[in-house]
Amino acid sequence: KPVRIEFETGVSKSLNQASGIRIMFDETHGIYVNTAELIVLEKEIDIFSIEFTKNKNDYSIVFTGKNNVGLTSVPMPVWFILPSRSNYASVLVSYEGGTENRGGQFDKKRGTIEFSVTHSGNYEVVEDDITINDIDSVSFSANEAIRFLVSKGILEVDRNKHFYPEASFSKYEFTKALVKMFYAENDKASEIAFLCNSSYLIPFLMLF
User: Fold this and answer.
1) What CA–CA distance (Å, rounded) separates 207 from 2?
2) Which terminal CB of the chain, N or C, has fewer other CB atoms within 10 Å?
3) DSSP-derived secondary structure for 82-144
4) Biggest alpha carbon distance in the chain?
């Protein structure tokens, strides 16, 4: 059934030393709000609420403010937990203004994926394995890393499912990957000037 969660003003202060609030609707559906981020949400939004609905193929997440007015986006992320079956699963969102891959952290033990949300929209867990046609020649660990990063939307393939593992990364491509990893919630993050060949980039990204 649809769920509505309303955070009363001042609830963040009552958390004391707690890192945040985790609310589970069942074993595989829930939300998590970090205390520091909740403080900002309370400051920026008079009455902060979340409306969460499970549809046939996706989930509708709507943020609302004062007088139950729908919000296109919120200034800080809220984390959602949904059922998932694969480490290569990713969450795709369709919202006003566009679509994007939100990635997500897979929890094999619980069979869930946890991901951050800042826009009201429809969120779908995509379980399809990642097919890349030109990485058979790379090592097993690099193959796994490339497929994982592509599944999360951090790295990209072309329309023919080619990654070009021997090609050099431009400053733009390398910076774009870094921004997606570390600044996913900040659309205005400053670019970092780096030039790196993919043979150096993949081992570096595997650290994360």
Assistant:
1) 39
2) N
3) EE---TT-EEEEEETTEEEEEE-EEETTTTEEEEEEEE-EEEEEE-PPPP-TT-TTS-HHHHH
4) 58
Count of CB atoms within 10 A of residue 111's CB? 13
Asked if 38 contacts 7 with a C-beta cutoff of 8 angstroms, the reply is: yes
C-alpha span between 206 and 208 (Å, rounded): 5
Per-residue pLDDT of the chain (208 residues; tens, 9 = 90+): 889 999 988 888 888 889 999 999 999 999 999 999 999 999 999 888 999 999 999 999 999 998 889 999 999 999 999 999 888 888 989 998 888 888 888 898 999 999 999 999 999 998 766 677 877 888 888 877 777 777 767 777 788 888 878 888 777 777 777 766 654 444 444 333 333 344 444 444 444 4
Q: Which two three-digit tokens encode residue 155?
A: 């790295």
pTM beyond cutoff 0.85: no
In angstroms, the first-to-last Cα distance of the chain is 37
Query: Which residues sit opposite 63 in a β-bridge?
Result: 50, 71
Query: Can you name the residues that pair with 126 across neighbouring β-strands?
Result: 90
Closest CA relative to residue 53, chosen from 45, 62, 40: 62
Closest CA to 156 of 140, 141, 172: 172
